[in-house]
Amino acid sequence: MKNASDLYLNRTLGTVGTLWGAAGAITLLGFALLRMTKPMLEAFSGAYELGIAHYTVGGLWVIFMGYSEGYKGFQKGYSPRVAARALYLRDKCTWIRLLLAPLFCLGFINSTKKRRIVVFVLLTVITLIVVLFKYIPQPWRGVLDLGVVVGLSWGMIATLVFLIKFWVADEVTYDPEVVE
Q1: Closest Cα partner for 27 from 126, 97, 130, 105?
Q2: From CA 82, how far away is CA 102, in angstroms rounded?
Q3: Radius of gyration of the chain measured on its C-alpha atoms
């Protein structure tokens, strides 16, 4: 049976792991958001003459990205899973999981085979899209980046909401898809 100091150490290690993992996952989203914001703001700064086509495509793209990336991708999948995996660390953190907590929370390690495949495929597709977006001239790049900024912002907010919800309730209602 574990003594009180071991339990305290495990809970402290787990709390640090939870915070480190969640911060790493949210920072990744924040970094992507910042990179997309500059070209988006440039497109709408008045330096370019935007026409009806820009606003129509931009509006439709924002709706599409808000639904597909923000709601379906983040709110219904990524965000609760990251939060569930972060809170999983609170009770079952090891030194290696602590060190690699952001990768653990994102599903790169100690996850099901299916989850790892999905994570790596998404990473590859997102990387390709980012590279392709660099070749789109302004103001179109900024117009399209607006939709991505909406989706990423939704994702950051949803992730924080799920983290707080699971932490306060002290109950995770989403499968963290962890493999021991």
Answers
A1: 105
A2: 9
A3: 19
